Amino acid sequence: MPKPFTTIVPPSFKAASETYQYAPAVRIGDQILISGIVGVDAEGRLPPDFRSQTEDFRSQTENIFTTLEAILSEVGATLDDVASLNSYHVGDLHSQLRELVDIKATRIRPPHPAWTGVGVTQLGVPGALLEISAVVVARD
How far apart, in whole angstroms, are the C-alpha atoms of residue 90 and residue 117? Predict the structure, then answer.
């Protein structure tokens, strides 16, 4: 029996998708569910260590939004279609939330999506400070 959803696996995610047995996104009707994204670059590496955790966080966050945009482009969506974000933070939650608000303001226009930010002790990628998942409303 076919599954009630369609997987979305951009070519650059194929190897990781097979290795970790996940889909970067799935489409169910008019909703697109985006798996958690950590702040690795196009080669799958975290940004080089900076002198401050704030710089690391900012760089990882920018990478996450770039990756999210790449996934969304596969289905003809943009950041304007994001209805909900969940963010998972390792480190100083309150300063990271303020930093994420500043970065989101440059990437996502009002009206703002729903957002939940949670502090955690660790993520699946050692050194990752942030992971974001999203729910997107498809345009078609």
Answer: 11
pTM: 0.91
Distance in angstroms (rounded) separating the CA atoms of residues 13 and 116? 26
For residue 53, count other CB atoms closer than 10 A to its CB.
15
Q: Which two tokens stand for residue 97?
A: 């939330």
pLDDT tens, residue order, the chain (140 aa): 888 899 999 888 888 889 889 999 999 999 999 999 999 887 778 877 655 556 789 999 999 999 999 999 988 999 999 999 999 999 999 999 999 999 999 999 999 999 999 999 999 999 999 999 999 999 87
Q: Environment class of residue 41 by beta-carbon count within 10 Å: exposed (0-12), middle (13-18) or buried (19+)?
A: middle
Instruction: Name the DSSP class of 51.
Output: S
What DSSP string runs through 59-87? HHHHHHHHHHHHHHHHTT--GGGEEEEEE
Q: Where are the domains of the chain?
A: 6-137
| CATH no. of 6-137 | 3.30.1330.40
Sign, Cα dihedral of 74, 64, 62, 80: positive
